[in-house]
Amino acid sequence: MPKVGMQPIRRSQLIAATLEAVDQVGMSDASIAYIARLAGVSNGIISHYFQDKNGLLEATMRHLMQALSEAVHARYRLLREDTPQARLRAIIDGNFDETQVSGPAMKTWLAFWASSMHQPSLRRLQRVNDQRLYSNLCGQFRRVLPQPQARAAARGMAALIDGLWLRGALSGESFDTRQAAQIAYDYLDLQLAKAETALS
C-alpha cells in the first residue's frame, strides 16, 4: 500500500524526469522506460499515475502552464501601480520567465505543440492556454481601448510573445529574454499611444 502523501511527490518526480528526458533525447525517444529510469521507478508507476506517455506529457504541460500563471501573478504582486501598462508588462515578463525558457521547458513546449496537432486532449489543453493568454491581454487592453481595437491589440501581442519565444527556442543560442521583452514592450507602447491619441 502506498504511503500517505506519496502521490503528489511521485507525480512531481515523474514530471521532472519527463522534462529531463525531453531535454536529453527529445519526445520521440523519451520512452516510458527511459523516463522511469531517470525517475528511479518502475514502468508500472508511470502507468499507474498517468496511464500512458500522452497522459504524462499532458501532466507535464499542466505543470508548465501552472508555473507560467504563477510567474505572471508573482509579478502582479510586485506592481507599484495597477495600470494596464504595468499589468501587460507583467504578462510579457511572465511569459519569458526562467520556468518557460529553460532548455527542458522550451523543448517540452515544442514537443507539446507538435503533439497537440494529433492528440485531442492535448489540443484542448493548447486551446485553453491560448485563450488564457488572449483573455488576459484583452482584459488589460480593454481598459484603455475600445473593444475591437483591444481585441486586435491582444491578438497582435499574443502572436508577438509566441513568435519571440519560438525564435528564441529555435535559435540554438542563449535566449536573450531582455531583448525579447523589450520588443514586446515597444509594441505595447505603440498600442497605448493609439489610446492616448484617440482621447486627445
UniProtKB/TrEMBL annotation:
Pathway: Amine and polyamine biosynthesis; betaine biosynthesis via choline pathway [regulation]
Domain of life: Bacteria
DNA-binding region: 31-50
GO biological-process terms attached to the record: glycine betaine biosynthetic process from choline; negative regulation of DNA-templated transcription
One Gene Ontology MF term: DNA-binding transcription factor activity
Keyword list, A-Z: DNA-binding, Repressor, Transcription, Transcription regulation
Pfam families hit by this protein: TetR_C_6, TetR_N
Ranges of residues in domain HTH tetR-type: 8-68
NCBIfam families, alphabetized: betaine_BetI, PRK00767.1
Listed PANTHER family: HTH-TYPE TRANSCRIPTIONAL REGULATOR BETI (PTHR30055:SF234), HTH-TYPE TRANSCRIPTIONAL REGULATOR RUTR (PTHR30055)
UniProt function note: Repressor involved in the biosynthesis of the osmoprotectant glycine betaine. It represses transcription of the choline transporter BetT and the genes of BetAB involved in the synthesis of glycine betaine. Repressor involved in choline regulation of the bet genes.
Protein name: HTH-type transcriptional regulator BetI
Native organism taxonomy: Bacteria, Pseudomonadati, Pseudomonadota, Gammaproteobacteria, Pseudomonadales
Gene for this chain: betI
